[in-house]
Each structure stands twice: as C-alpha cells, then as structure tokens.
Amino acid sequence: MAPAQNSISSKNVAVIGAGASGLIAARELHREGHTVVIFEREKQVGGLWIYSPTAESDPLGLHPRRPIVHSSVYESLRTNLPRECMGFRDFPFVPRVDDLSRDSRRYPSHREVLAYLQDFAREFKIEEMVRFETEVVRVEPVEGKWRVRSKNSSDLSDDEIFDAVVVCSGHYTEPYVARVPGIKSWPGKQIHSHNYRVPGPFKNEVVVVIGNFASGADISRDVAKVAKEVHIASRGREADTYEKLSVPTNNLWIHSEIETACEDGSIIFKNGKAVHADTVVYCTGYKYKFPFLETNGYMSIDDNRVEPLYKHVFPPALAPGLSFVGLPGMAIQFVMFEIQSKWVAAVLSGRVTLPSPEMMMEDLTASYTMLEALGIPKRHTHKLGKIQSKYLDWIAEECGCQLVEPWRKKQVDNGYGRLVSKPENYRDEWNDDDLIKEAYEDFASKKLISSLPSYFPES
Ligand code: FAD
Question: What is the pTM of this model?
Fold first, then answer.
C-alpha cells in the first residue's frame, strides 16, 4: 500500500450513474468523508437491472441519435452467478425470508437483483444523494477542478464545479454488432441482444443467434421455446462444428461461425451447412462510450480500449480528479465495483497515494506490451479473464481492504464452469453445497445475516 503523504481531506464528488457501481461508489466515498452528488438520468436506482418491456426502435442500436433505452435485460433473465458471491461484501445478496414476494432462488430473476439494489440504497441512505432524471451531458477539467453540465427532465441545464468526478455510467447499452460477410444484401431481420425482450416475435421462425456466452446461451434457448429452429453460430468452435443440442423442443443446433449471408435469405456456416433464416440475433457484446466526457483529446476509445487508464480506473494525467468504476469485464462485478470504489475514495482523501503520472503511464505501456505479446487483441484490453483475482487483490492491498474471500473466488470459478458445461440447468443444479455453507458461515460470523435460506445444505 502506498502510504499517504498528505493529510486526509474531504472532497466534493460527482458520481455519474446510480446503477450497482454508482451506488457502491457513493457509499464508499461517503464513508471516507466526501460529499457526494449522484447524477442519474432514470427515475430510480438500479441501472441495467431496471427492466423495460419496450426496447429501442432501432433493433441494432446503430443510429447515434436514437432514443436510448438503458437496460439490456430480457424478461426471462436470471443471474449468471450464484447470489452469495454476487452481492456486496457487507450487504450479502441473501434471500429475504421476511418477504414472500421476493425470489429466493440461488440464481434469482432480474427483479430480485433490482430489489436487492433498492434495499442497498435504502440501507445506506444513498437515494438522498441522487438527482434523478438528471443526465450529465458534459464533463470537463477546469483549473484543477471538474465542470459538470447536467440536464434535468424539464430540459434545464446547469453547470457545477466538483473536486472530482467518478464515472459509473455502465457499458452494456451501446451494441457491438459483429461483422457478417454478405449481411448488407441479406433480406432478413436483424436485432442485437440489447433489444431482445421476449421470444414471442420469433414464433415459427428460423433464427440464427450469433454468440454463445451468457446472453447467447440464454436467448437461443428462450427463442427455441417458440421458434421453428434456432441455430447458434459460435466463434470459439472448430470449423466443422455441427451439433444438435438437447432441449425439450428438439430444435436447437450449434455451428461454427458464419461464413457468409446470402441475398436469397440463407446463412452459410463455416461447417458448410446452410439455413434459410428469418432473423439474426447478435449476442456479440457492447462498446464503451462516454459521450459526455471532454478531455481535450487526452482520453480516447480505440478498438474498445479506453485509454489511458491506469489499472482500468485512473487516467494518469487527470487523476485522481477523474476516475472510472466498473470498466473491466469480469465475473465478479459487484465486488470489483466495491474494491475499486474503496481505492478511489482513499486516493481522493489522500489516505492512499497514486504513483506519478509518468510511472502510471509506464505501468500502462508495460501492460499493453504484455497483452500484445500474449496475442490478446486490443478490443479485449478490459476483459480480465484469468487475471481478475490478481487484479482485485492488488487493488485491495493498495487501499488496505479485505482481499476477496477464497470461497467467493471458488464459487465464481465453479459457477462459470457450470455455465459453460451445462447452460440448460446450471442455475438449478449445482455441486458446491460446501461453498454455500462456507459463504453463509462467513456471513453469520460477521453478523451479516440472521437466518439461512431453504437450500442451505444440512451439516
Ligand atoms: P449500469 O447498471 O448500467 O448503471 C449505469 C447507470 O448510469 C444507469 O442507471 C444509467 O441510467 C446511468 N447513466 C448513464 N449515463 C448517464 C448520464 N450521462 N447521466 C446520468 N446518468 C447516466 N453481473 C452480475 O454480477 N451478475 C449477473 O448475473 C449479470 N448478468 C448480466 C446480464 C446482462 C444481460 C448484462 C448486460 C450484464 C449482466 N451483468 C451481471 C453485469 C452488470 O452489468 C453489472 O452487474 C452491473 O449491474 C452494472 O452496473 P453499472 O452500475 O456499472 O452499470
């Protein structure tokens, strides 16, 4: 941990977004003694987890001035992680046995995650810090401080000066649409998973789903309930892949990636198979975008790399006044937000110091060189994969907070293993009761819970 040189100071901080990352950032900043204003363009807290039955009018989300629907949640979505390892550390995401309307499953629906985040905001009095229906339209440095321009629901704008800005605006709203050769002249319908809500519109259709990770695996199975046939195109598979998957409707296949889309409506896969499809659903991920940020060209996004960002949080020459919480894609999101937020709060108060901008840039350049040597494409800079645990431990040590609990890391690893190997039933069948027990014993020893869930394994 870098020891503080300065005396502890309290800052006036703007947080952009009241999703999971903004809520925990606000709590940590407040705990550290800072004054916090959260700007949130929606009417409530929860961000991505606020389900909207209406999607955007542009199904691929390509038009730059389209009206934005923030959430990418579909009606049938359940968490892709067990709830014990998903929640914030001192506010575990455990079933609410006092309220029968709540979803007590280990992998609950999106509504339960929203309810959990609302509980969290209430418990830590965070809503009092939020300016709802207020969108940040511009953020820029001015004489060592930050000017934040916001616009409220009456379209009135306001300029305010803050000591620091923490960006928590999320990155699952701007679709990345994979390139498919020939697609421009292909006559069918196309939609990105950001705008997928329910399977109904795909009734009796032949559907090609591109992508087979969390959303692709879910959406292909959801659509298969009503479609005639569903064909998944999976980039990670061998070129000759062609497999019928076991689903009750007997209408789901997995292929290698798409070779080309044709004018006659067919889609040809690299395995040589062709299907005449009605719709292509892109489950191909999202792009980073911070339309409000004006840094005189210092920061940029190139091939989905947000740069320069020391440890994915601080832009060296603008730190610590500007920081980002929640950028890396990793399994254990909420806990990552929590640890990054503690670091930001401690750096802003002067309790922890950052290296000089030159040293941060050196570290960053070395990490880019390493990615290149490992053959990791630039667009995957913020996907931490196997190094996520090391990354979190590094930040936790830097700001002197508790390392991620071993049971939590094991639950995440097991959970992701099951997601990949058993996409049909990983949410309802598991083999890590011992880790559930460990989690609840941990919560109980810290007096964070007073009762146990119904699926708690008997000892
Ligand atoms: P968001 O939840 O997107 O919140 C950002 C907030 O910022 C929003 O409320 C938005 O309105 C606001 N905002 C944006 N721009 C502005 C602006 N200019 N002015 C004012 N306000 C603004 N993670 C898990 O841990 N478990 C899961 O099971 C899981 N499932 C997922 C399923 C899907 C389909 C997706 C897309 C992601 C999933 N994730 C999951 C990851 C999930 O995104 C994170 O867990 C987390 O909820 C993201 O929180 P966030 O606060 O960073 O962003």
Answer: 0.96
